[in-house]
Amino acid sequence: MNLIVFFQGWGLTPKHIENIDSKDFDVFCYYEHQNLMFKEVSQIDFLKYDKKILIAFSLGVYAASLLSDSVFNSFDLKIAINGTEKPVDNKFGIAENIFKATLNNLSVSSLEKFNFRMCASKQCYESFKQIENSRSFSSISDELSFFYRLTCRKDSYKPKNWTKAIVSSNDLIFSAINQKNYWQQQNVEINEIDAPHYFFSKIDSWKNLF
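-> structure tokens emitted (210 positions)
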């Protein structure tokens, strides 16, 4: 049996990856990043799995980068999708003024507009809206605030040895140029795809990401 540990993006839940075929995999979805203690991840028995794969999406890439080196290096593959280890950064992430404006002006209405930009098309957005999200607005707001406070800490950044970065050319959230700037600097393999920021509704197998 193989293991996938998936670090979900901001505001999302395991429901947003339920459509992906998990045959041959135990899938652990880490989401609602509001403390990043990683207790559940550290309790996984890695020795019982043949292959261990870490996949992180959007702000989940930054969250996963905060794993201890010993846990992070337990994975055979480490795949970053549409995110970087410097999520609030004018050159390597989301421009700080945009991130702060999103946080300071966050409302139910602005969150819907964000989700539409994340999907980048009406068809994708309609599919996205069909997925039940049990999280409250306050939980989603607190999570974004937590991320911002954490990235402002000077000791919060330590690069990890990622295997591959998947970058969507039509990403309206995390600039594809900034993503490539970052991963090129880290000498990480880049796989650029024709997709929006959020494209998991079109993925039917985890193996498509490897």
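The CA atoms of residues 99 and 150 lie 13 Å apart.
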